[in-house]
């Protein structure tokens, strides 16, 4: 089966199987005194079964985070999904995330409860004013959280995560870490069966594909 990555999906929040539309257009508050920065872009973040420890077996989730400070690679914001099974997070929590690779989803490094309680019921129902109020109240907390990204704890966590991803995503033949890519089922069938459930870089895949076509 080919490795399909780098897919796109619409910015819609799935909450217990229901679609909660929190796109920038739908979530913009009607109060014109609120700037367009009140509801910034959503960032897809990976949450491990054990926080910041993706090498521990268990069910992890990918969820949207409403970025309040930082960038799509390193930032902090509000968790915009209600987790399906994770017990350490809930809708509206503060999330610190980071990655050093632009083609990969950032990993959640810290998850904390906000100091001021949000109107979670209204947020769950996609109420724009509730999200705008939560973003406004939590912005300073997120900025403070982002400064902790340079702490020894976060640096150690990111180093371990990178080492883990290198091990599982390196090419099964040469060990090279290639950018994620995709191919068709027909072309992937040219790869020997013993490698079809593994990761291959483009170069090693091309060797197999060329050899099979010439034979």
In short, what is this structure?
This protein has about 220 residues and is α+β, with helices and mostly antiparallel strands. The protein contains 6 helices and 7 strands; from the N terminus they run ββαβββββααααα.
Globally, the shape reads: elongated
Biggest sheet record: 5 strands, antiparallel
Helix fraction by DSSP (H/I, runs of at least 4): 25-40%
CA-based gyration radius = 20 Å
- Give the SSE order as H and E letters: EEHEEEEEHHHHH
Count of beta strands: 7
Mean pLDDT: 80
How do the strands line up in the largest sheet?
Answer: 3-4-5-6-7
SS-based class: alpha+beta
Low-confidence stretches: 1-38
Number of H- or I-type helical stretches:
6
Give an overview of the whole structure.
The chain is an alpha+beta fold. It contains 6 helices and 7 strands. It has helices at 24-27, 120-124, 128-147, 152-169, 185-188, 202-214; strands at residues 12-15, 18-21, 42-47, 61-70, 74-79, 94-98, 107-112. It has a 5-stranded antiparallel β-sheet with strand order 3-4-5-6-7. A two-stranded antiparallel sheet has the order 1-2. The longest helix has 20 residues, at 128-147. The protein starts with 11 loop residues before the first strand and ends with a helix.
